[in-house]
Amino acid sequence: MAGAGGGGCPAGGNDLQWCFSQVKGAVDEDVAEADIISTVEFNYSGDLLATGDKGGRVVIFQREQEAVVRTKCRIWRDGVLPLFACILAVRYAATALPAERWGSGLREAHRNKSRPHSRGEYNVYSTFQSHEPEFDYLKSLEIEEKINKIRWLPQQNAAHFLLSTNDKTIKLWKISERDKRAEGYNLKDEDGRLRDPFRITALRVPILKPMDLMVEASPRRIFANAHTYHINSISVNSDHETYLSADDLRINLWHLEITDRSFNIVDIKPVNMEELTEVITAAEFHPHQCNVFVYSSSKGTIRLCDMRSSALCDRHAKFFEEPEDPSSRSFFSEIISSISDVKFSHSGRYMMTRDYLSVKVWDLNMESRPVETHQVHEYLRSKLCSLYENDCIFDKFECCWSGSDSAIMTGSYNNFFRMFDRTTRRDVTLEASRENSKPRASLKPRKVCTGGKRKKDEISVDSLDFNKKILHTAWHPAENIIAVAATNNLYIFQDKVN
Amino acid sequence: MVGGLKRKHSDLEEEEEDEKWDWGPAGLRSYQQALLRISLDKVQRSLGPRAPSLRRHVLIHNTLQQLQAALCLAPAPALPPEPLFLGEEDFSLSATIGSILRELETSMDETEPPQNPVAPPGPQNEVLPQPDPVFLEALSSRYLGDSGLDDFFLDIDTSAVEKEPAPAPPEPPHNLFCAPGSWEWNELDHIMEIILGS
């Protein structure tokens, strides 16, 4: 799954010139809580981009087919000049269009009539309510409908499948297109009224007629009642048949076809809850080895487990932990070491973890310490007391790899996000804001001033807006296109070369 | 909100930065006390209609433990996450604060070993932590379809819901505390003030 289809995407964060492409979402200063984006995920091809929000909704964007070429040929010369438009729709990913897709290709080309060279923009494809708020009567507790994670399944036919989860329930959704309807039924009228079968004297074969494209989402499986604690992660296995779901204390393995049973593969709940000092914060399957997964903890450790070794993977195969630096020890050491996200590289050779102040890259063959550590916002280290008080210290930032694994990205405060190029060792801070949202405008690097004289264009630490957090980001699997969720807005940035 | 809080604690942070290499005992103590205050506040505020984040609760609890150790109190942790999950607000608040108080009380006394709470805010406090792990086990096994409804109810200790006359808040026995007016006395006093919301 390495970025092979990248078509020569260059090395990484800093050799690229990131430009604004699109922003989705309301412009209002008043942000409705339900509109806050809680997860962002590209599918395997990058054609589809899904977002989940606190209101339990899923919005899927589809990339418009690029390079729509229209040629007009004049065929009549004598005064009557109908235009014979010959439209070729070419998919940027260079896969041949199956015959039935040609039809919808034409339709999309018509939509792009006014912008003949659409640069592959993402537009709304489907919106649906995935989860509703629930009430647990037994415990007198509300169950939030917020979508914690979305994970796509690899595409196997014309339909798309994704898993979406809230704190308690995982759902498998099927998203399918319908662009034809049948007409000429024997047993019912065009109005839908049933015809009297005894009155039918002749039979006809219904014919398929084109209709406006309709995208339908339907829940195909509901995986419920297996988690006592809050689900923080789901991960589809490379066997494409199973997936894992992790909550604070347990990890369960599911088969995508079976909803009434799951296998518990990790359980860190102590016999006596009073002894609880550590929780599971994230989990992921290895991208190629279907028996291997990792999970991270609130104490800054990562455990790699092999499901072949035993049914209950309480004993890890590998244990990753960086020894603490005694000189920087404080009351907040443990909290800031808590890992908020863990992601395998596309190659499967490395994994990346995000804690409060840094991103670390680990070589799976070396458990003693990470091979790379990148500071995200070290200037916050002296502000930890305030950040503890206003709860920001508990924010869970995600991180992601570029398609070729040469760069990594993660979010910060003040709508800043950070990119680290692993080859050139350079990093950049960029901002997602409506002020920089002219089409194809280059993003200017931002800098935070930590003390002393503030230079022009720098922003001081005390002026940072801690309510503008970028927790969720995603990188296109093959190209240099990134999606950044800033509260209720989704920004899409592209490399200029693109 | 962030600005206001910063104003409140900017002194602390300035102190932290200026005295980075030279923590005076008074400065350190007031810093630790402030953190203790903030942490207890958080525990109080974590109750609500939704189940609180277990991760956040565990991290705060671990920080509280460190603070207690630093304030020369022997750690005797009793994490009560279960009452929070039960959502019984009165029970859980008193249980939580009760257990924290219990820790502070028993750990301050060097001669007497930790026993049942000396100053329980209510009778429920003693009983709740016990059935909860079992309660949740029963709950989870029920979710996974292992046990019938009968087994589920057998595990619940119903003494929690049996009403008993609540004892009047007792006078803390003098042999458990340092003399009134000492730092520990004032500390407890201060904590009680926060809890009672005065």
Q: Summary?
A:
Chain A: Residues 429-451 are annotated as: Disordered. Chain A is mainly β.
Give a description of the structure.
Chain B: This is SERTA domain-containing protein 3. The complex is a heterodimer of chains A (498) and B (198). Chain A has helices spanning 99-111, 333-337, 384-389; strands at residues 18-24, 37-42, 48-53, 57-63, 69-74, 83-88, 122-129, 134-136, 141-143, 149-152, 160-165, 170-183, 207-223, 231-236, 242-247, 250-255, 263-267, 280-285, 292-297, 302-306, 318-320, 341-344, 350-354, 358-363, 372-375, 399-401, 407-411, 416-421, 427-431, 447-449, 458-460, 472-475, 481-486, 489-495. With 498 residues, chain A is mainly β. In chain A, strands 1-34-33-32 form a 4-stranded antiparallel sheet, with no helix packed on it. In chain A, strand 26 and strand 27 (407-411) form a beta hairpin. Chain A is globular. Helix content of chain B is 60%, strand content 0%. In chain B, helix 2 (25-45) runs antiparallel to helix 3 (54-70) and helix 2 packs parallel to helix 9 (183-196). Chain B has a domain at 24-74. At the A-B interface, strand 9 and helix 3 of A face helix 1, helix 2, helix 3, helix 4 and helix 7 of B.
Molecular shape of chain A: globular
Largest sheet of chain B: none
Rg of chain B (C-alpha, Å): 19 Å
Secondary-structure element order of chain B, as H and E?
A: HHHHHHHHH
Cα end-to-end separation of chain B: 22 Å
Mind sketching the topology for me?
The complex is a heterodimer of chains A (498) and B (198).
Chain A lengths: L17 E7 L12 E6 L5 E6 L3 E7 L5 E6 L8 E6 L10 H13 L10 E8 L4 E3 L4 E3 L5 E4 L7 E6 L4 E14 L23 E17 L7 E6 L5 E6 L2 E6 L7 E5 L12 E6 L6 E6 L4 E5 L11 E3 L12 H5 L3 E4 L5 E5 L3 E6 L8 E4 L8 H6 L9 E3 L5 E5 L4 E6 L5 E5 L15 E3 L8 E3 L11 E4 L5 E6 L2 E7 L3
Parallel strand pairs in A: 30-31
Antiparallel strand pairs in A: 1-34, 2-3, 3-4, 4-7, 5-6, 8-9, 10-11, 11-12, 12-13, 14-15, 15-16, 16-17, 18-19, 19-20, 20-21, 22-23, 23-24, 24-25, 26-27, 27-28, 28-29, 32-33, 33-34
Chain B lengths: L1 H17 L6 H21 L8 H17 L10 H6 L2 H20 L15 H4 L3 H13 L5 H6 L28 H14 L2
Helix pairs in contact in B: 2-3, 2-9
